[in-house]
Write the structure tokens for this entry.
Amino acid sequence: MPLQVTNSPFNESQAELLNQLLPTLTGPQLTWLGGYLSALSLQGNAGQAGTAAAPANPAAAEAAGTAQAAVKPEISREVTVLFGSQTGNCQRLATSLSRKLEEQGFNVSVQAMNSFKPNGLKKLENLLLLVSTHGEGEPPDNARAFHEFLYSKRAPQLPELRYSVLALGDTSYEFFCQTGKDFDQKLEELGAQRLSPRVDCDLDYDEPVAGWFSEVISALQGTRQAAGLAGEAVQAAEKAEALESAYSRNHPFHAEVLENLNLNGRGSDRETRHLELSLAGSGITFEPGDSLGVYPENHPQLVEDIIAAMGWDAAESVPLNKKGEEGSLQEALLRHYEITVLTKPLLEQAAKLAPGTVLQELLSPGRQQELKDYIHGRDLLDLLQDYGPWNVPARSFVTILRKLPARLYSISSSYNANPEEVHFTVRAVRYESHGRERYGVCSVHCAERVEPGSTLPVYIQSNPNFKLPANPDVPVIMIGPGTGVAPFRSFLEEREEQGAGGKSWLFYGDRHFVTDFLYQTDWQRMLKDGVLSKLDVAFSRDTEEKVYVQHRILEKSRELYAWLQEGAHVYVCGDEKHMAHDVHSALITVIQTEGGFSPEGAAAYLETLSQEQRYQRDVY
């Protein structure tokens, strides 16, 4: 029965809206809505009518509870979302989550952790943290200052704060999701209350992220649609990751290989490949500083050895993924599952299938160091040989394996200079461990089994934390030894296309000048054409005393500090464990010596550059 304006308290436009909505509702929805409206009315008259009786219908009672909760004045609609991200994953997820919360009526502030003023913590009521872990359990660059503040004596008590933490990590590292664990533990110690439990995510993070989104949305609003909203948010992040293309991390583009060249000279003990791929027809674009995700294949010999060790049939049909897709065992181990890395979660699952109790004993609390030593440098074949004989069907065993993750490589070309192409640089990794030859999965795949005309599954991983200055007239200092120089080829190609007026200075290093000077002819041409203003190199094996890029930085201390004073942006790319720390220390020494700062003052100067995005690192 349509609602009539003449016999109702509604105006014409209100009646029209109700007449559009009401016929579409089911019986349970009408019951729920009735309870919700009743509770709103009773809440408004509570001061006059006293305590209202609860609705008899359970659905109406639940709706009434929702309505009463919705109008409680103490429930805050303000949410602060902070992200700490080295490669941009947490930033994309934070942006997507904030959009969903805004659609639900929340006022959301999204910031990088290094942009947030920590003394504002006491004013917050709802805080959501999304953070990755970098290196050996360290915070990413833009989370470092916030982490230090929380663990300092200046951190305040936060009894009014509600929070939740999403942590991204990799279970193959000892300090899995350590930064997220640190934040979660410290906020609890400071008296804050969890909105929902922390969620730790491995490399294949879509499902746990959606679960955390759902928990957070439910805790903040109690909406029944939380699960659906969470899934939409993760999908939105995936779309943002794919930029304007139809391709993404979960739907890679199969790019044709145009070139595959060895950049090292004859006699070098290194093999560094320069690959050029066609993006024609994909719609994929990228910016300098972005990374290329490459899905590799495992080494065929390792796949054969695993199948033989278990007595399996290579043609047997097994699950390829969680979507229910099936394929041969050989296909599964070659392209879909990780078989070169052991993790504690994998061993825990394998122990349930293993004969006897020897593997279970290795996992006991008192043998943590022994477990760590065993995992390091071994792969799935080692596990199967060391703890067999096994009697496990292939279909059952593959379900405990982790999805084969993509490898990320700094893009070494400018899209504007090379339309519909993407170039990347990869050094082949080969070594012996525990009596067997070992291979870098993607690097040796590219070096030995990828030829022009073949294809690679790829996607773009945008990195908003490693970008050229918006103003092309700003000077740039680029520090990238070895394959760390790759993104600076992209930077300089882009600056050349822009006709940039800003000065540019590259520090490069490797072992030998004659055989290991990557992209030497490119740098020489750019120097000649004025695209590159200065080039300083360090070849560590060409002199009696090993010389590295940090030594060249110290030698050029005065000029480098003058560039900083002129507003130069500093970029560092390459090895995180040694080089990045040494370069960071060298920069602090330069600032301290030339600027007259104390060690603490020089560190603060560099941290300010980082907050201003004038000191950016892409280290791994």
Q: What stands out?
A: Confidence is low (pLDDT under 50) at residues 41-56, 58-74, 223-227, 240-244. The first strand starts at residue 78 and ends at 84.
